[in-house]
Each structure stands twice: as structure tokens, then as C-alpha cells.
Amino acid sequence: MKTEPKYCWYALKVFYNKVFELEETLAPRGVETYIPIGREEVKGEQYLRMRTAMKQAGQDRLDDPRYIFENPHIYKRVPLIGSVMFVRCPDTQIKQIRTVVGERGFVYLKADGKSPAVIPDREMAAFRLVADHFHEGMLILQDEAYTRFREGGRVRVKEGPFKGAEGYIKRIRKDRRLLVAIEGVIAVATSYIPPENLEPVPEPEA
Fold first, then answer.
1. Which of 21, 107, 121, 205 is the most exposed place for a label (fewest CB within 10 A)?
2. Could you tell me if 37 and 76 are in contact, meaning their C-beta atoms sit under 8 angstroms apart?
3. Is 160 left (phi over 0), alpha (psi -120 to 50) or beta?
4. Which of 29, 30, 5 is nearest to 92 (CA)?
5. At what angle do helices 19-26 and 94-101 cross, to 10 degrees?
6. Residues 6 or more apart from 78 whose CB is under 8 A from it?
7. 153-184 per-position pLDDT tens digit
8. Which of these, 89, 116, 95, 101, lies nearest to 23 by C-alpha position?
9. Among residues 137, 128, 133, which one has the least CA distance to residue 186?
């Protein structure tokens, strides 16, 4: 019996802040990608130029993945960190993706230094939940001390925009923050969350 491929998340290190360029390269191959982003509203002369270009082309938006169109507003997608992106694909396809990435970056590997490191769906979902609500006062961290941080018990947020996110509490820059990490790759630290909005949860199974 033929075994169905398993869809998994993987992290990519991308050189020279070329995450959007690599995103465009992978899209025609049907690869799902995720880039932690913020966004900046386009205003002034740049906004007028873009609106004029759309009108001349008879479009209500430009076919440009660097921008988000929420009529009448235009936002520029800004990577929270320009050197990291994530892909979800069949485990049988990751070797091909490593070839496509080539000299533009690499796939994060397991501790053995050979096999691509699979990111558990639960870990990825928690990270995306927090990163997608990124705002001033939050932090993106790549330091090893944070991306592998597991001090104290694991907690889950019960209320607010981060409801459902799981991670660990750590004091960073004088504030107690929820730290949610893709282990060994990247972490995002929330602003202060009141203790009454947190509940203990068991450690995820390895």
C-alpha cells in the first residue's frame, strides 16, 4: 500500500532579507508559506502613484505580494525579521525545496545536522497566533537563550487577542512576558499579560 505523504512545517533561513522573493519562487510549486509580518500604511505621493497605476490598468489592486489592499487603504507588508520564513509541504517535497532555495538560504536541521527539523503543528499554530497580533511593545527574538527557553511551567492565555496561545513566562526588559517560540529558530514575546489571564497546561508530547 502506498503511504500518503505527511504535510509538515519547516523553517527556512533566508539570506539578504529576500523572504518575499523566495515566497514568489515557491508559490507556483504549490508550497504554503508563512512570513511573520507587520504592515505600514502607504500614504502621500506613493499612495497616489499606486492608485493612478491601478486606475490605468483597470484594476482595484496591484498584483504585488509586498502589499495588502483593503480599499481604500494600501499597506506595505514588512517582515518582522527579514531572514526567517516557514513552509508547509509534503515531507517528500522538502528535499526539492532545499534545492530550490539553493544559495539563497537553508532549511533548519535537526540536532543531527542532517534531517530537516519538523515544526509540530501545535507549536506553529501558537507562534502564528501571537505573531499575527504583533504590535508595539512586543519583541521578536532569535537569541538561542530565548528560542529554547523552557523555564517554569507552560501556560495558556485564557482571554484577549492571544487567547489560546501557549508558552512560558519570562522577565524581559523589566516586564513579565509570554514567550512563544519555534524552538531553535525564533521567538516572539508579548507585552505584559495579567496572571489571572493565564492557566497552567501540560507540556506537549515530544
1. 205
2. no
3. left
4. 5
5. 130
6. 37, 38, 39, 40
7. 999 999 988 999 999 999 998 888 999 999 99
8. 101
9. 128
* Domain spans in the chain, listed from the N-terminal domain onward: 7-36+80-107, 38-79, 121-200
**139 to each of 55, 68, 175, how far by Cα in Å?**
39, 23, 12
Amino acid at 93: Q
Q: Each residue of 43-93: pLDDT tens digit?
A: 999 999 999 988 888 887 777 888 998 888 999 999 999 899 999 999 999
Torsion (CA) 107, 8, 89, 85 in degrees, nearest 10? -40
Class of CATH domain 7-36+80-107 = alpha beta
The one-letter amino acid code at 151 reads E
- Specify the pTM: 0.88
Give the position of cell 538560504. Answer: 105
